[in-house]
TrEMBL record:
Organism taxonomic ancestry: Eukaryota, Metazoa, Ecdysozoa, Nematoda, Chromadorea
GO CC annotations on file: membrane
Single GO term (MF): metal ion binding
Residues spanning the membrane: 28-50, 88-107, 119-140, 152-173, 194-212, 236-256
PROSITE patterns per the UniProt record, alphabetical: CYTOCHROME_B561
Protein name, as recorded: Cytochrome b561 domain-containing protein
Keywords tagged on the record: Electron transport, Heme, Iron, Membrane, Metal-binding, Transmembrane, Transmembrane helix, Transport
Coiled-coil regions listed in the entry: none
Length: 272
């Protein structure tokens, strides 16, 4: 058995590892990591393209009207504010939150403070996009004089965001600016990880519920057009985006939950 110790690109001294064991442990790691990033950026593109292209695209303000893609005279609402809501929530609660979870996997040999900083910042950006997404959907419902908080999607959304904020504050106090004892941090760490993955998983389910809810409340002609995949590609793009989102969530949760890929302490961490 041979072991090595070396410095990473950011100067961390990596502790000795078995040269044969680590490749075995990290088998498929590079492939799954690359796949997660490809799926993530593809999801960003498809989400932006779908929301920008159909039903009026991105518009802020009163809901206007436009004609169906088949040229019929049936008017449907231009849901510009809803498109902002859909985009901000998917970009934030799915992609940025997923990337925040992966920071300790993507930078597994760098100084922990580096990964910790990125982890916290990505979650902060997630919160910012959530706020913009919430403003957009409230504006959309106000424009339509529609009721608020009547669906399971909205109830779960509030519950998820409440849990997210509590998790963020608890994580910052415990790990970002630690004022708790090492024993408490050691106890809370697995709880923090588990709750984070649960919040991410429910956020992905929330995104799927939102897409399905939107197609259900469309006017009947547009809804039938979507169900028969005759909406000039709109239904196909949405279906493909949903599949990509699910696959992205699977890769993130696999990388985050597998003990084979867990970040190892560097020597300089163990010395302090």
């Amino acid at each position: 058995m041979t072991s090595t110790a070396y410095y990473s690109e950011t100067g961390s001294l990596i502790k000795g590892i078995d040269e044969k064991e680590e490749p075995r442990q990290l088998r498929y790691y590079s492939f799954i990591t690359a796949l997660s990033q490809i799926l993530g950026f593809l999801m960003l593109f498809l989400t932006g393209y779908w929301n920008a292209t159909w039903q009026g695209g991105f518009q802020w303000g009163p809901n206007n009207v436009e004609y169906l893609p088949d040229g019929s005279s049936t008017e449907v609402p231009v849901t510009g504010n809803w498109h902002y809501h859909s985009t901000f929530m998917t970009y934030g609660m799915v992609f940025l939150q997923g990337e925040a979870i992966l920071m300790y996997r993507l930078f597994r040999h760098e100084r922990k403070i580096f990964s910790k900083f990125l982890h916290g910042m990505f979650h902060l950006f997630t919160l910012i996009l959530f706020i913009f997404g919430l403003i957009a959907i409230v504006q959309f419902k106000n424009n339509d004089e529609d009721k608020h908080m009547f669906s399971a999607h909205s109830w779960l959304g509030v519950a998820v965001m409440t849990a997210f904020i509590i998790q963020y504050i608890a994580g910052f106090v415990s790990f970002g600016f630690p004022k708790v004892s090492p024993s408490v941090r050691a106890w809370y760490l697995p709880v923090h990880r588990a709750v984070g993955m649960i919040i991410f998983g429910v956020s992905c389910a929330q995104a799927l519920m939102g897409y399905m809810e939107q197609t259900w409340i469309w006017p009947s002609k547009l809804r039938n057009c979507y169900y028969t995949l005759e909406c000039h590609g709109e239904g196909l793009v949405l279906n493909f985006n949903i599949i990509v989102l699910v696959l992205y969530a699977i890769t993130v949760l696999h990388l985050a939950s597998s003990k084979k890929y867990i970040r190892q302490k560097t020597i300089d961490e163990e010395q302090h």
